[in-house]
Write a structure and sequence with these properties.
This protein has strands at about 5, 10, 15, 20-25, 30, 35, 40, 45, 50-55, 60, 80, 85-90, 95, 100, 105, 110, 115-120, 125, 130, 135, 140, 145-150, 155, 160, 165, 185, 190-195, 200, 205, 210, 215, 225-230, 230-235. A hairpin with a 2-residue loop joins strand 32 (about 225-230) and strand 33 (about 230-235). It has two domains: about 1-65 and about 75-120, UDP N-Acetylglucosamine Acyltransferase, domain 1; about 140-250, Hexapeptide repeat proteins (UDP N-Acetylglucosamine Acyltransferase, domain 1, 3 Solenoid). The mean pLDDT is about 95. By secondary structure, it is mainly beta. It is built from no helices and 33 strands.
Length: about 250
Amino acid sequence: MTQIISKSAKIGKDTKLGYNVIIEDGVQIGDGCLIGHNVIIREDSIIGNEVRIDDNTIIGKLPMKAPRSIFQQEEKLPCCKIADNCLIGANIVVYRGSTIGKKTLIADLSTIRENVEIGDYTIIGRGVTVENYVKIGSRCKLETNVYITAYSELGDYCFIAPCVATSNDNYMGRDKERFKHFKGVTVRTGARIGVNATILPGITIAEDGVVAAGSVVTRDVPKEKIVLGSPAKIFRNVPEPQLLKNNRDK
């Protein structure tokens, strides 16, 4: 068994490490954690108590800057933080500067970029990508292969169905005018988006708003309304039994 553990790292009691684990300088790992095989935990990362991290996952990765990237500013990112009782699956990359709330699950093959904040009791499904400068609330569900674009914000209790795509650039990478309008999406508390829907840049889906499956959303979605189609238009009100106020504890 080969393990490389920095002398400055702190590992809590009853924490178990798999084969070929690398733990860098300043890392803190709480009590009762289970760290799988081939896991890399980068410098200064903080892992809470009773956290499970599965095989081949990287915690605290530094971002790369391509010569043509729009994110060229150099910044000192804070450490990656994962709170108590989280489940982090296999082959996941969580970047430095991300904060994961307690009892959150991140499923296999997902990517969480830098400057991301995820609340408590949230489920990030298999193969989900959360880009940089994103905030996701508590008790959300993002299902398989969801894509959350940079500079987006999701409130609490949001439901995002499989293969939903969001966007932040109406100019599709051309014309410097795009930098004046670059904006992600806003999904307010209790809003829901159906499978394979597409949300265009700068759109707000208001509280308890619903986007039907396969829709292309080009305008803001009002509170407690269902929209559908391409482009999406108001269809009807969200049924009273489905409103968050009647389901908050479910």
